[in-house]
Write a structure and sequence with these properties.
The complex is a heterodimer of chains A (95) and B (267).
Chain A: H1 2-9, H2 16-33, H3 37-52, E1 55-57, E2 63-70, E3 77-84, E4 87-90
Antiparallel strand pairs in A: 1-4, 2-3
Chain B: E1 3-8, H1 16-29, E2 34-38, H2 46-50, H3 60-64, H4 70-73, E3 75-76, E4 83-86, H5 99-110, E5 115-119, H6 126-133, E6 137-142, H7 146-161, E7 168-174, H8 176-181, H9 187-194, E8 197-203, H10 206-214, H11 225-237, H12 253-260
Classes of the chains: A alpha+beta (95), B alpha/beta (267).
């Protein structure tokens, strides 16, 4: 009962299903890739290197994962490399 | 020509056998000729779930090894017209059968039956390979737990690479109360993660335990909510366009009250 009241007060407390979903998403990245986290880190490093020639990016917020998506015909599933790279500034040389 | 459907999950105990029994019976109730094959050699259970354990003479291994003809090993379910079971062997192991033999068996059964449902063992080894080898399509059963969803994801990957494209998913044992409280992943969460089509959502139902105790599939129980869901899934397999029952939104009294006072589900 008290726990319930506390929950009511602190609405911010995350529901356990959100934690489950987030943990699952993370663990599946590696399951699906069938590669080590180091391998993804290597790709990440290379991508950062290339992009930095052209723009300033937020390296800490960079998110790269292997996920699955429906193919164009919508009749099958294909693996996809999804990278979310926040840009701080486009360098002049890139324009 | 019949269709071969494998029911699989990766993780054990999520309800593959119960799903096979109920969908098979559901399809027979729709006047289809159906055979259920238990490929869980060494740990057979489809026979007890179906209530046919006392009528086994020959089994799957006897058939593939040529000790009997397929017809001799099929157990006719006398309660439902057109429903048959091919039980697994209990005293052998998964290596007693190979994928080639399964393909041949499925080809033979296709001539006689509309649907061949294969109950796959847990795991991703030989038993899984055998079960999927003769199949045209796959149904993946999961529950809203991290472990079951993770294993389902792995199985979907393996099915895709074995040319069993577009597997459909059944989410089993959903507890609407927990979903509402935010303590169980929603159907959308799971579909979002697995990126496959949804075939059905089965609510957690005590009637399943009771019907399994008795060896009578819940699909025949008009009072069972899970049974109703299985009847709908059977119709969907037949191509009927039946909307998926939203077990999550069945509101309880308390929930309505909370909403009235503007209290969110976070509590």
């Amino acid at each position: 009962m008290l726990a319930g009241l506390l929950n009511l007060v602190s609405r911010k407390s995350r529901s356990s299903k959100d934690t489950a979903k987030e943990r699952l998403k993370l663990v599946l990245i590696h399951d699906r890739a069938n590669v080590s986290p180091q391998f993804l880190e290597m790709i990440k490093g290379e991508i950062i290197k290339v992009i930095q020639h052209y723009m300033d990016i937020d390296e800490d917020a960079l998110d790269i994962q292997i996920t699955r998506t429906k193919n164009d015909e919508g009749n099958g599933i294909v693996p996809a490399l999804v990278a979310n790279i926040p840009i701080k500034k486009v360098k002049n040389s890139g324009k | 020509m019949g269709e071969v459907i494998v029911i699989t999950s990766g993780k054990g105990g999520v309800g593959k056998t119960t799903t096979t029994a109920n969908l098979g019976t559901g399809l027979a109730l729709e006047n289809k000729q159906v055979v259920l094959i238990d490929t869980d050699i060494g740990l057979r259970n489809l026979d007890v779930v179906m209530g046919l354990e006392n009528r086994i003479v020959y089994d799957l291994v006897d058939v593939v090894e040529g000790h009997c003809r397929v017809k001799q090993a099929l157990i006719k379910d006398r309660r439902y017209e057109g429903l048959y079971l091919l039980p697994a062997a209990q005293t052998r192991d998964k290596n007693a059968v190979n994928p080639k033999q399964m393909v041949k068996l499925c080809q033979e059964l296709r001539e006689e039956f509309d649907f061949i449902l294969i109950d796959c063992p847990a795991g991703i080894e030989q038993g899984f390979r055998n079960a999927i080898s003769g199949a045209d399509r796959a149904i993946v059963v999961t529950t809203p737990d991290v472990s079951a969803v993770r294993d389902a994801d792995r199985i979907i990957g393996l099915l895709e690479s074995s040319e069993l494209k577009n597997p459909k998913i059944i989410i089993n044992r959903v507890k609407p109360d927990m979903v509402r409280r935010g303590d169980m992943m929603t159907i959308d969460d799971i579909i979002d993660i697995l990126a496959v089509d949804l075939l059905g959502v089965v609510p957690d139902d005590e009637k399943i335990v009771i019907s399994t105790n008795r060896g009578e599939p819940a699909v025949t129980d008009s009072k069972s909510l899970a049974g109703q869901v299985y009847r709908n899934i059977a119709k969907r397999i037949l191509g009927e366009n039946i909307p998926i029952l939203d077990v999550q939104s069945e509101e309880g009294f308390l929930h309505k009250l909370k909403r009235l006072f503007g209290i969110k589900n976070a509590m």
